[in-house]
Fold this sequence. Notes:
This protein is of the alpha/beta class. Helix content is 41%, strand content 17%. The protein has helices spanning 3-10, 33-45, 86-99, 114-122, 135-152, 172-185, 203-206, 216-221, 228-232, 261-270, 286-294, 306-321, 344-351, 363-372, 375-378, 383-394, 404-414, and strands at 24-29, 49-55, 77-81, 104-109, 127-130, 159-165, 191-195, 236-237, 243-245, 275-280, 297-302, 329-336, 357-360.
Amino acid sequence: MNPMSLKEALNSFPRENFSNSDPLSVVGICLDEQTWTVLKSFAESAPLIRLRSHLSEYRVQETDTGTEWMAGPKPEICIVDFDRDRRKAALAAENIHGASPDTAIFAVSADAQPDLIIQAMRSGCSEYLLKPIGREQLLNAVARVGGRRKERAQPFRAHVLAFMGAKGGCGVTSVVTQLGVLLANTFSKRTLVVDLHSDFGDAALYLGLTRHRYHFFELIENTDRLDAELLQSFLARHSSGLDLVPAPEGNDGPRRILPGAVAQTFDFLRTRYDYILVDMPPGLSDENLEMVRHCDQFLMVALAEVSALRNVVRQFNYLTHKEIPPERFRVVLNRHQKRSLITDGEIEKTLGQKLFWKIPNQYAHIVKAINGGEPIAQLSTSEVAKSLTDLAMHLGAKPIATDKKKDNAGLRGFLGR
Ligand SMILES: Nc1ncnc2c1ncn2[C@@H]1O[C@H](COP(=O)(O)OP(=O)(O)O)[C@@H](O)[C@H]1O
Ligand SMILES: [Mg+2]
């Protein structure tokens, strides 16, 4: 992400949201004397922060006690000086981020080179404060942490449903996008689709949302700074009301995602939505595994084919081995046909579990919907639409029934009844 545009997006900050009744605990690391003095006088004059301790070493050697000093209640802010040793400072920030993803990390430095700023942000810092630190600069940064703390304190709400294909082409993107549109439109649920593909994701294309600025991996890189306002700049909005965080447009190189970042991002997203549907690429990468650990339901989309079914069994075995609770697993059989060569009974026997959902095979409807970019309108009388509507209800969504006329025009009209 271009640092200037990020700066613009960050320009307004939720100072008014920040309750000052409960000061944020702060630990300083390798700060020079002048910076520590500024912090002390700031803490004394405004009850926004409470200085807990100052470490005079980065403690990143293997022989060091690492982040043991963080045992007990985690500090809410760590302020790390990057000028004494940039490499060690970045490592210290990564260690802190790994041990306590909720701790905000501020880099302080006299060097304002953009690549150094980006490097610090990538190691988990949410702020880059330029020396000599001014009161206003510090106040803004602290207020942002306070605002985020308040937003994150809201109880988790969204149901996170992670969809993965037993192999490519099973219909994950079709199901996720169309179920998403239904939940947003017919059921008036605050719904978000996240495309977790690291390259060549299709969700934006299937929804006809090809003009967007940022993608999911940029969102993850900014997770420490994420608040309601910044999130808006990452969303593409479909006419149904569905929000989308798309995948990168092409393949823009491998990305290093800090452990815990996927979970942390979804913790925040959960506070903003009723349903979050995740379009995962097939396979068990570290990000996928973290996603499976963090979701409420993991739905594997399969076809009635030997290779797909074999993959379902293998992946479930692997996930069970990784201690993912088996009650979270669901199998959705897509392109279901009543007269299939492999019967439902045989499939369930192979899988060792009941099929959670069956979505009928209606290629023409799906293709028309995708090409039209308006899934809900195109699918209004199809069996696929009916199956997905029933699925939405099974997942707990209730159709809105404001008045009788609207109800008829809504769900039943949508089903062509
Ligand atoms: N229920 C269905 N009936 C018929 N064709 C389907 C159905 N669901 C998906 N398809 C078709 O299967 C193909 C692959 O779908 P897609 O959603 O791109 O899969 P994936 O995201 O798992 O790779 C597409 O051509 C799509 O139109
Ligand atoms: Mg896909």
